[in-house]
Design brief:
The protein has about 425 residues and is an all-alpha fold. The chain folds into two domains: about 5-200, Hypothetical protein af1432 (Orthogonal Bundle), CATH 1.10.3210; about 220-405, Hypothetical protein af1432, CATH 1.10.3210. The chain has 22 helices and no strands. The structure holds fe (ii) ion (3 copies).
Length: about 425
Amino acid sequence: MVTKMEYISSKNIVLLICDTLKLLERSLMEHGERTAYIVYKMLEAEGSYELFEMADFAFLAMIHDMGAYKTEDIDDMIQFETKNYMAHSIYGYLFLKYLSPLNKESKVLLYHHLNCEDYQENDYPLLPIASYIYLADRLDIYHKSLGDSFQFDMLKKHEGTRYTSKALFLLEKAMEKTPIIEKLNDKSFRRELDELFDFIMFNNEDKKKYLDMLMQCKGLKNDKTVMETLICSCIAEEMGKKMHLTGEEMANLYYGVLTHDIGMLAIPKEIMDLDRQLTPEETSIIRKHIEIEEKILKVRLKESVAQIAATHHERADGSGYPKGLKDKAMNDPQRILQLADSVTAMLSIRPYRGPMDKSAILKSLADELKAGHFNRRVVAIFTDNYDAIMDKVLLKSEHLIEMNQKLEVQYQNAISHLKG
Ligand SMILES: [Fe+2]
Ligand SMILES: [Fe+2]
Ligand SMILES: [Fe+2]
């Protein structure tokens, strides 16, 4: 569907993934950022890495704990980072293996808490990177919990058992050259890390895969959202074709769909899971997701894309939110996402009802059209092509279900193996 992928830079894709994970849990991602910076400085001290390689590995270091979003109570960070670290290491590994373009790098996440005396797969080429992340991660955790009483010797005494000599050597060298701790404290490391990410370069194929990974990141909080985003993007794509959107409009729509509900990640799960009529206060909390995502998307994506995402709850008669825009003030990609998002909600299970069937969906759309909520042409095109569009939705969801199931089965097997 996407013809021109230069609508978003490689760097902004990376930053958007990080923004998304930050919405899930800010403190864990900030730990990831600090770890990434330390790893960057270690690689720099090593001397043989190109800038683009350091940028790639810093990104990997940034997301090294991504499995924990799924497996852990983040408030217990010290617990899962020091004692029960297998669950998030395994989940992070499987996530990268099945749901991201980082297949080759995935084992780095599996090994990021592994003591060097336990290395069994010594020929894994990225084992050194895993060992650097492990040490960088420890530096951050120790320093965060001990403050000024942290001493380098606390790490050094585990040379050859927990940490490799090479990793310790690089960290020591990096700390001599750069006041790493000070930079972490005054947050000035962020600018350097940001500049390093200018060197991230994905080809168009990879960009598409990283955007799919972004969609999967949303599922770390609520796995239903991945399927919903896929359904929504599929409906939007088919509608875009039927409505003869230009290549640029199709691309805008695609990004708009992928990012349109990332603000929901910031909404407390207790509110999302309520199976009763929401109070006005709860409704206004949920509506905030637009404001939250607009702030992020405005700086990461073109304005026309951010606008498509930010208007998905607007309605043709001005009854939508947040701005109460009317049909005339909107364009076809915006109208399509409004419809696709609504139909996706109808197709999805809610705590108070199962998925709606064809006749219920078409009846509901006809009622909404009567009430003035949707553009007449958009509803007509959807209604006329309902079966063809749903066939495509089914086809695309099969692959996604298969990948997610594989991950889940392997994760459960690994965990029961550990327990056994
Ligand atoms: Fe970890
Ligand atoms: Fe960590
Ligand atoms: Fe929404």
